[in-house]
Amino acid sequence: MELNQVDIHYLIGAICVISSALIFYTIGVWGERIQKKLKFWHIIFFLLGLLADTVGTSLMEHIAELTHLHDEIHTVTGTIAILLMFVHASWAIWTYVKGSPKAKKHFNRFSIVVWCIWLIPYLIGVYLGMHLHA
After folding, report:
1. Burial readout 98-116 (b: 16 or more C-beta within 10 A, e: otherwise)
2. Is the pLDDT of residue 29 over 90?
3. Where are the membrane-spanning stretches (predicted)?
């Protein structure tokens, strides 16, 4: 199916927002990993990544409705990723506020797992986008 000008503009916006989610989330997760301790600014980047991913996913959902191009695996993995990002950010806030120094130090194990899972729908979306326009 061909995309019209409105679809293309939504797609460009969604790609930019989803890519910013990748940047924000990566900075937060790997910043925490490198510094070996959960800090407030990591939480800000987790939340910015979650926000950008949620907005980008909403735009992508709108494009899928306009074009009738739905991919179930992408939808399911994307939903799981957003839920995990929400749990991750919530747990990070709790750990930062109430957690022990040991909990803050070992939080990054969960962060890396969530980041890797988040990459799955991101890469599926990249693949689908390239396949659609090939």
Report:
1. ebeeeebeebbebbeebbe
2. yes
3. 12-31, 43-64, 76-97, 109-130
Identify the pLDDT of residue 1: 52
Mean pLDDT of the 18-30 span: 96
What pTM was computed for the model? Answer: 0.88
Identity at 83, one-letter amino acid code: L
